[in-house]
Design brief:
The structure is a single chain. By secondary structure, the chain is mostly beta strands. About 10% of the residues lie in helices and about 35% in strands. Strands 14, 17, 19, 20, 21, 22, 23, 27, 30 and 33 form a ten-stranded mixed beta sheet that branches. Strands 13, 15, 16, 18, 24, 25, 26 and 34 form an eight-stranded antiparallel beta sheet that branches. The two termini are about 50 Å apart.
Length: about 575
């Protein structure tokens, strides 16, 4: 791909033609009788805050580009009076170069486009290993995640061709419209890094008084209930428009989501065998489905990213085992706070930052991932985790640790070996579903966890410490090993260090202190899996009733951050 400097054209036609000739560009000559061809897309495209790049030798296919928003940031469009196939190309681009580094491997980032689909994405000319620890996703990842909030505007010449006709247009690719203003820090250093990547995104529009929500808070929180205010509330009102009413054979299940709160991956509609969308709003619920190509998720990236607070979610799961199309089929439903891969290691490199202490790790890297749950319907179990330096090791001197809270449903009611078991009344029903409300208060000194299994519990209650297993990675051959065979259980006095009782007279009222992040984090609801049979008529899903976040008015100013 060429890099060429652009000069603004003048209104004079001969000047324009001369400039194009100098640059080596040729305007197509169209006979008057040829059908018309013209661009209909805008000339300015704003990048999604978190965009995934592709190495040059793994270009996007049309299906990938159209289906997943984070793999492209927008699309070109054109219309013609004939019926020829449209082919889109990038002819040249100019502006400040953007470099992406994956560990010690660096390469230039360029704008690219899918030929038949016209979807714009970023590609990086990087020769990085695509196997091994922390480099690929299950040995086959072909993407690299970055953050483009500080992306310098780039002018790009694009073209569309239909038959023998070809027309050109200059477009501008710019940073997100709501990117923070960090112009006071022109040099890439720690100040600029903190401005872009450790800032809270507060949804100020959702701070209206909500006395009913405050009254619904559980009694066991770090501060008195009256001290809290609502900072985020999603009740999932609204409904999707059926495909038949849209007239384009396409179902936009998430069209009713509030764009001030959520980003989502499926920009194009995808439907299952019942012609229902993969994710959709209906009857006051978010319906999330994992079936064949259905999957993806919704996120508050760049819109709402709090630091601390009490988060409460209510959801319903299908507990019956789905039919399997293969022995390796796997399904995962989840609600998550945080992202251990953001900011990426390359951003530390480009800002000359070094993570040389646990405190810097916990404040500079949004490495928190607390899974409210990851649910596998095939085995009717779910796990919750919080991590310290686990998935993407940023600080080799800090031993990676994680907690593991495992729950099983409809397998008896005797809890043992760190596994909490629940036997709701409808377990014998072939369409059994279980509704759960969970709360997690994230404070500077630790986490407080609460749960209610509807039909078994009347209120939210704190979890028994026995349900929390702490695992540690092992060190060998000059690196940490995180796989199952190399994990060890943390026990005895070493384990006790990660629990702090808030009331000496109430041993069930305590904070877990492992992996306390002090950087803002996003919320995500999603699904993923593999080895689905597209013909298998199996609709496994969950519904989410609400997601709410509360913060005390003093923002925990009376608590000292704990780095542990």
């Amino acid at each position: 791909m060429m890099d060429r400097e652009f000069k603004p054209p003048t209104p004079n036609l001969w000047s324009v033609l001369s400039l194009l000739a100098v640059l080596g560009w040729a305007l197509p000559v169209q006979a008057q009788s040829e059908p018309a061809l013209q661009f209909t897309s805008p000339t300015v495209f704003q990048v999604h805050p978190e965009v995934t790049m592709r190495p040059w030798d793994y270009p996007l296919t049309n299906d990938w580009a159209v289906g997943i928003k984070t793999y492209h940031f927008d699309a070109l469009a054109a219309q013609q009076s004939a019926a020829d196939a449209l082919t889109f190309t990038v002819e040249g681009q100019g502006g400040e170069a953007r470099e992406y580094c994956f560990e010690e491997h660096c390469g230039a980032v360029s704008v690219a486009v899918t030929a038949p689909g016209g979807h714009l994405y970023f590609a990086v000319a990087i020769d990085a290993p695509r196997s091994g620890n922390d480099r690929v996703n299950s040995g086959k990842a072909t993407h690299m995640k970055s953050n483009f909030e500080d992306f310098a505007a780039r002018r790009v010449e694009v073209a569309v061709q239909a038959g023998s006709r070809k027309v050109y247009q200059e477009v501008v690719v710019a940073a997100p419209a709501d990117a923070p203003d960090c112009s006071d820090y022109p040099t890439r250093n720690e100040d600029r890094f903190r401005c872009y990547y450790t800032r809270e995104y507060e949804a100020a529009a959702f701070r209206e008084p909500a006395s009913e929500l405050i009254a619904s808070l559980p009694g066991q929180l770090v501060q008195d209930r009256e001290q809290y205010e609502v900072v985020f509330a999603e009740e999932f009102t609204g409904s999707y428009t059926p495909a038949a009413e849209q007239g384009d054979n396409c179902d936009r299940g998430l069209e009713a989501l509030d764009g001030r709160k959520w980003n989502y991956r499926h920009k194009r509609c995808r439907t299952d065998w019942e012609s229902l969308p993969c994710h959709y709003l209906e009857d006051g619920h978010l319906h999330v489905v994992l079936k064949s190509q259905c999957g993806g998720g919704i996120f508050t990236s760049g819109l709402f990213e709090p630091r601390y607070g009490y988060m409460e979610v209510s959801y319903t799961l299908q507990t019956t085992r789905p039919p399997r199309s293969s022995s390796t089929q796997f399904q995962n439903f989840n609600i998550v706070l945080g992202d251990p891969r953001r900011p990426g290691k390359h951003l530390l490199h480009t800002h000359d930052l070094e993570i040389n202490s646990l405190e810097r790790l916990l404040t500079l890297v949004t490495w928190l991932e607390y899974d409210f749950f990851e649910y596998n319907p095939d085995s009717s179990n779910m796990v919750s985790h919080q991590y310290r330096n686990w998935l993407h090791v940023h600080h080799p001197a800090v031993p990676p640790l994680r907690t593991n809270k495992k729950r099983e449903f409809c397998k008896g009611s005797t809890s043992e070996g760190g596994v909490l078991r629940y036997q709701p009344p409808n377990c014998g029903n072939t369409a059994a579903r279980i509704t759960i409300t969970e709360g997690m208060e994230w404070t500077p000194e630790g986490y407080l966890f609460l749960r209610r299994v509807h039909g078994l519990d009347d209120t939210l209650t704190t979890l028994d410490k026995s349900g929390t297993v702490i695992q540690a990675a092992t060190w060998a051959n000059n690196r940490w090993h995180l796989d199952g065979d190399n994990r060890r259980l943390v026990s005895g006095t070493e384990r006790a260090e990660y629990f702090v009782e808030l009331d000496p007279n109430n041993p069930t009222f305590y904070l877990e202190t492992l992996g306390i992040s002090h950087a803002p984090s996003k919320i995500g609801v999603g699904t993923w899996g593999w080895d689905f049979d597209s013909e298998l008529r199996n609709r496994v899903g969950m519904t989410v009733d609400y997601i709410r976040v509360f913060q005390p008015r003093n923002r925990y100013a009376d608590m000292e951050p704990l780095y542990q």
